[in-house]
Amino acid sequence: MKRLLLIAGVLLIAGCSTVQPWQKGNLAKPAMAFDYDPLQTRFEDHTYFSKEGASGGAGVGGGGCGCN
Amino acid sequence: MFPLYSFPFSAMASRCEALVHAPDEASARACSDAAIAEVRRIETKYSRYRDDSVTTAINRAAGGAAIAVDEETAALLDFGAELHAQSDGLFDLSSGVLRRAWDFKLARLPDPAELERLLQLVGWSQVEWSAPSLRLPRAGMEIDFGGIGKEYAADRAATAMAERGAVHGLVNLGGDVRVLGPRPDSTPWRISIQDPRGRPGATVAQLEVPQGALATSGDYERYFELDGRRYCHLLDPRSGWPVAFWRSVSVVAPVCVAAGACATIAMLKPVDEALAFLEQQGLRYLAIDAAGERHAR
Amino acid sequence: MSQSAGRKSASINRNVLAAALALPGVLPAAHAQVTVPNATLVHFKYLYYRDYQADSATGSGERMTINSPALYLLTPISDEWVFEIGAVYDSISGASPYFHTVLSGASGRGIEDGRTAADVTVTKYFGGRTAVSLRYAYSTEDDYRSNAYGLTVRHATADQNTTFTAGIGRSNDKISPTDGPQFEEDKETTDFLVGITQVMTPDDVGQVTLYYAQQRGYLTDPYKAFWGIDNRPDSRDQWAALFRWNHYSQTYDAAFRSSYRYYSDDWQVKAHTVTFEWAQSLPDGWTLTPSFRYTTQSSAEFYYDPIYDPLLGAPFPPGYLQNPNAYYTSDQRLAAWGGMTPGLKVAKALPGGWSVDAKAEYYEQRAEWRLGGEGSPGLENFKAQFYQVGVARKF
């Protein structure tokens, strides 16, 4: 687990020679956002939260849904 | 391939145009409306001629107390400060008052006493600027964003279009052009450079711009000639006199503000220094000197 | 260049372009950046959810249906403040997936319930690179009330290629079941998050997030406890590591989104979840996005299989009499299984900043889909379909 994190961290930083601001046009496309559809994310997160044993990772202070 | 839509409009005392490839007119218009709205917003906010503009508020307070400016104005003032330092004083947001000494319509040289008096009011180093507080210590001093307003508006307008989905298009504000992205077939836009000694519309060269901006500074925009010598509107803020090193300088940069600032600064420098400056900035340029010789990269 | 009075400290890379890029709004902002949004967004979406689980004893099945309209609004108030509000109403009918499907026929409990949830988030942007968000969420059902708070800070480096995120949150829930024994219990959850978002290339952005949550209080499902044997610890510590990568393909004009989450808690549930989406741009403003999600989880250590005590029979786990106060659950959510969700979304951009979208997904949990194959025995496959239809406007 710790090794996984280390590899991911190294990949993240190493994969980068500095990208200039005017090169980020593609990253500005709506489909490239991590939370490009907030309501869809909420629906799906809530669905999986109530049907699975695992949850969390993306935000804090979730606002419980009573899905014990 | 989407058709090309063109939306001409007038703003900032120039003929302007928003060009965009879009699936239909409604989407194209949505993009151009956003672009034009942004240009008008900046024009209104920074116009010297409007009573309610930020510029007027700043200038009215000259010689009095400091005023607080908003974030956008602060960013522009910081830009002015940075460029003043990088250009050894050639780029100076406080140099606008010198226009009072030069009457391009009457084609007259300035009164030396008047020019001397106005020079006392010029000098960014006198301006007390520490965000967000701005103070012009002497009455009569002015801040003038005219030197970068059009280029800044071109960039903001282009960004507004891009945020509405425009990919292939450009914004042209009286010759200051900001391109969003290449044409749909991936070829660059070809932007013509005005011949500095030709009639309006006569071109002397074309530069290919796939994305980014092109801005031109020239001695033909406002000038008069006296005894065989041309006096143009680009004044050296240190002497109050126009420069005559170049006929025009065009610069290509990722954003229009940078292209315009570099073009203006290069125009104010003698040939060798100007070329060294442009090379150091690492940008493409086409400069035509006083003799009509071209220098390019 | 010589030093002169009033100049800031020199740096090698100072040039006109660098100064120009410090101006606001001269370039479109990549989503990975911390910049004030300059458009108002309104989204409306409707979810229809239906699940099904066979009851091998009775031959019939348990079904739950949810109809859920939801609204979301984001609006910048000035060039520093952004306000967001969300609201959702769930209309639920049917039965929730029960403990050992063998028994659900006997004690399945029908639910007719409505859940309302709303949240508001206020964000302030500082100095062009930092954002602080405060969120409050409220959720209520017949038997449940929750108040949750969250504080999140994001800070980007000067080149806006790296963003650091940290968050802390707290939920206070009150459970007071309407069926069965009447009581009121509390549950408190405190959670923490740290993350880094990194622009790697002009076409790639990645994110690593570490998450930790502590739940304390009443964690048992009251209905399961009443109808069956369900007794859970009053604390649960959870960890998750989430890795996300968005890649833009210039060749296809499509965005490839992927994520992997590793989850582990002190109930011994461990899970791996991967998701993939391919958002393909098509002519005329259409986007087609096929998606796939796979998850695999181990069971909680106090989960018991449907093998019952030889004397007491169902629903009692073996050895129950010797240890009646131990932790037990037969909740399928805490069993070991694997689940897959293929999905397809279609979206169309319309003039005037409007867009519409529709998505269909099918989700199935099966014991034999667990990675490594050691799923809990005796589980009936759980199946669900969910559909979303949405409309959005950007001003």
Short description:
The complex is a heterotrimer of chains A (68), B (297) and C (395). Chain A is mostly helical and 68 residues long.
- Structural class category of chain B: alpha+beta
Number of continuous helical runs of chain B: 7
Overall spatial form of chain B: globular
CATH topology name of the largest domain in chain B: T-fold
Strand segment tally of chain B: 15
Helix content of chain B: 25-40%
What about the largest sheet of chain C?
Answer: 16 strands, antiparallel, barrel
Number of domains of chain C: 1
Shape of chain C: globular
Low-confidence stretches of chain C: 1-12, 97-109
Termini separation of chain C (Å)?
47 Å
CATH topology-level fold name of chain C: Porin
Order of helices and strands of chain B: EEHHEHHEEHEEEEEEEEHHEE
Name the biggest interface.
A-C, 53 and 118 residues
C-alpha-based Rg of chain C, rounded: 25 Å
State the helix count of chain C: 3
Computed CA radius of gyration of chain B, to the nearest angstrom: 19 Å
In quaternary terms, these chains amount to heterotrimer
The main β sheet of chain B shows up as: 8 strands, antiparallel
Strand/helix succession of chain C: HEEEHEEEEEEHEEEEEEE
Structure description:
The complex is a heterotrimer of chains A (68), B (297) and C (395). Chain A contains two helices and no strands. With 68 residues, chain A is mainly alpha-helical. Chain A is 40% helix and 0% strand. Chain A has helices at 2-14, 38-51. The two termini of chain B are 33 Å apart. Chain B has two domains: 4-44 and 147-296, ApbE-like domains (T-fold, Roll), CATH 3.10.520; 54-143, T-fold (Orthogonal Bundle), CATH 1.10.3980.10. Chain B has an eight-stranded antiparallel beta sheet with strand order 1-2-6-7-10-13-14-15. In chain B, strand 14 and strand 15 (294-296) form a beta hairpin. Chain B has seven helices and 15 strands. Chain B is globular. The longest helix of chain B is centred in the N-terminal third of the chain and has 22 residues, at 25-46. By secondary structure, chain C is mostly beta strands. Chain C has one domain (37-394): Porin (Beta Barrel), CATH 2.40.160.50. Helices cover 5% and strands 56% of the residues of chain C. In chain C, strands 1-2-3-4-5-6-7-8-9-10-11-12-13-14-15-16 form a 16-stranded antiparallel barrel. Chain C starts with 15 loop residues before the first helix and ends with a strand. The model of chain C is unreliable at 1-12 and 97-109 (pLDDT under 50). The interface between A and C is large, with 53 and 118 residues.
